[in-house]
Amino acid sequence: MSSTVSIVLIGVAVLFILGIKFLSSPKTARVGNLIAAAGMLIGLIILCKPDGANIWSQGWTFNYTLIAIGILVGLAIGALGAYSVKMTAMPQMVALFNGLGGGAAALVASLEFIHRASPAKMAGTLPPGEPTAALTIPMLFATLIGSLSFSGSIIAYLKLEGKFEKPMTFPGQNFLNGLILLAIIGLCGWLTFNATGGDAVTAFIVMFSLALFFGIAMVMPIGGADMPVVISLLNSFTGLAVAADGFAINNTAMIVAGTLVGSSGTLLTLLMCKAMNRPVTNVLFGAFGSGGSGKAGAGGVAGTVKPIQADEAAVLLAYAQRVVVVPGYGMAVAQAQHQVRELSEELGKRGVEVQFAIHPVAGRMPGHMNVLLAEANVPYDQLIEMEQINPSMDRVDVCLVIGANDVVNPAAREDKSSPIYGMPIIDADRCKSTIVMKRSMAAGFAGIENHLFYKDNTRMLFGDAKASLNALVAAVKAN
Ligand code: TAP
Fold it and tell me: Residue 295: inside a domain, yes or no?
C-alpha cells in the first residue's frame, strides 16, 4: 500500500471517529452522519487491493464502474428506505441493513480465503507462498461472525415484522446450538493450519453454511420484543467482522470503522441490558415472553381502576404548575408525538412548566422516544433523563403517562418476585396525581400487571393516544 493511501486511510478513520462523536448528541447527529458518510466515500475512492497494488494500477476503469454502480444502487435503496419506513419499523430497517453489512463482511473474507486457498485458479494474481495463520485467522473470524450476523439479522427482521410471533424453543436447543458451535470452531481450527487445496475449500464452505445456520438457530428462540438488544449485539458482530476483514486485506480504515462499530454495539447492548436489569445471557437464552398471553387481569392487585374523561384531565393539566410527560411504546404506536408537542405548547402558553421524562428503554429501540420527540420539534432541553428527573417527581402536579407501562411499573421497585424487579423506572407513582393514557388494561412488553394503574392518585384516560391527545388539546384550549 502506498504511503499516500495509508495517510488518506488514517484520515478516513479520523472522520469515522468524529462521526461517532457527533452522533452521540441529537443536536449534532445529522452532521455526524454526514462526516462518517464522507469518510466512507473517500475510503471507497482510494480503495486498496490486498496485495499492495492500489486500484489505479488494477484496471481502474472497471473497478470504478463497479464502485459507482454499487454507490448508486445503495443510495437509491437507502434513500427509498429512509423516506418510506415508518418510525415504528425503524428497528426492522436497522436489522436488515446490519444483516447486509455482516453478509458483505463475510463475503469479502470468503472471497479472500478461497482466492488464497486455490492458487491454481488465481495464478499470477497473488503473492507466492502459503497464507499464514495471521491472515487466515481474521478471514475465518470475519466469515464466521459476518455470516451469523447476516442470517441472525434476517431472522430478527422477520420477527419484528411479526412473521414469527413467539420465541421458537424446543428441549435440548441450547445443547444442539452448542454442538453446532463446536463443529464450527473445530473446522476453523483445522482450516487455520490447512488453508490451501480443495479440502480446505470444501471445509470452508461447510463452515460458512454452519455459521449461517447457527445465526438462525441463535435468534429463533429469542422473544420478538428482545430483538432490539439482539440487533445491537449482531451490529457489534458485524463491526468485528469488518475489523477482521481490515486485518485480512490490510485496510486501516476498515479496522478502525469495524472496531468502532464493534465496541459501540457492545456498549449499547450492555447499557440496554442494564436498563432492563437483565443479563445478556438472559436475553440470549431466556426466551423472555415465551409464556403467558401478554394480557394482564386485575386479579390480586389492591385498589381500583378510576377512569377519567379528557375534559376533566384537561382541567387538571391546565391548572397545574408543573407537568411531566412520560412517553412510551404506545406513543410510538399511535404516532402521537405531534399531538404531544401541541399539548405541551398549549400548556406552556398558560404558564405550566412541561418536561418529558425519558426512560432509556422506553419503546422498542434505543433512543426511540428522543427520535420521535425530535421529529415533532420538541425542544431538547425539555427532555430529561430518568436519573435527573426522578428525585423531583414528588414535586410534580400531574404526571401524564402516554402509552408507557413497564417503565413506570412500581413492581420493579417494590415486588421482589416480579420479572422486572430491579429495573430502574420513572417514579410516576410519586407524583401528586398521575394520568395514564392507554387503550385498555392490557400489559406491556413484560406481560405483567402494573400496580400504578390501581393507585389512589392515578386516573386512566382510555383510548388511542393520538385521539385522546387531540381531545385534550381541544379541551385545554377551551379552558
Ligand atoms: P410497554 O411496557 O411495552 O407498554 C406499552 C403500552 O402502550 C401498552 O401497555 C399498551 O397498552 C399501550 N399502547 C399501545 N398502543 C397504544 C395506542 N395506540 N395508544 C395508547 N396506548 C397504546 O412500553 P414501555 O413502557 O415503553 O416499555 C418498553 C418495554 O420494552 C420495556 O419492558 C423494555 O424492557 C422493553 N424493551 C425495550 C427495548 C428498547 S431498546 N427500548 C428493547 C427491548 C425491550 P394498551 O394495549 O392497553 O393500549
Answer: no
Query: How far does the centroid of ligand 1 lie from the alpha carbon of residue 237, in Å?
Result: 28
Q: Are 117 and 160 in contact (CB under 8 A)?
A: no
Residue with cell 420527540: 373
What is the Å distance from ligand 1's center to 343 Cα? 21
Ligand 1 centroid to Cα of residue 55, in Å, is 50
Residues 178 and 221 in one domain: yes
Which pLDDT does position 121 carry in this prediction? Answer: 55
Amino acid letter, residue 302: A
Q: How many whole angstroms separate alpha carbon 247 and alpha carbon 228?
A: 29
Structural domain ending residue among the three candidates 84, 101, 133: 84
Q: Are residues 71 and 2 in the same domain?
A: yes
Divide the 479 residues of the chain into consecutive groups of 10 and give the mean pLDDT of each group.
Answer: 79 91 85 93 71 52 80 90 81 89 94 78 55 85 96 91 75 87 94 84 94 93 79 94 91 89 92 84 67 46 88 96 97 95 96 95 86 90 94 97 96 87 93 97 89 95 97 93
Number of domains, the chain? 3
Nearest alpha carbon to residue 427 among 460, 386, 381 = 386
Please state, in angstroms and rounded to a whole number, the distance separating the CA atoms of residues 47 and 243.
15
Supply the residue whose CA is at minimum distance from atom 21 of ligand 1.
438
Verify whether residue 406 is a known catalytic residue.
yes
> Which domain range does residue 412 map to?
310-478
Ligand 1 close to Cβ of residue 122 (< 6 A) = no
**Marked catalytic residue, from 245, 406, 427, 429:** 406
Closest CA relative to residue 328, chosen from 249, 401, 240, 435: 401
Give domain status of residue 170, yes or no. yes
Give the C-alpha distances (Å, rounded to integers) separating 57 from 1, 30, 48, 350: 12, 36, 10, 69
Residue nearest to atom 4 of ligand 1 (CA): 444
Is the Cβ–Cβ distance between 469 and 330 less than 8 Å? no
Q: Of 33, 63, 84, which residue constitutes the final position of a domain?
A: 84
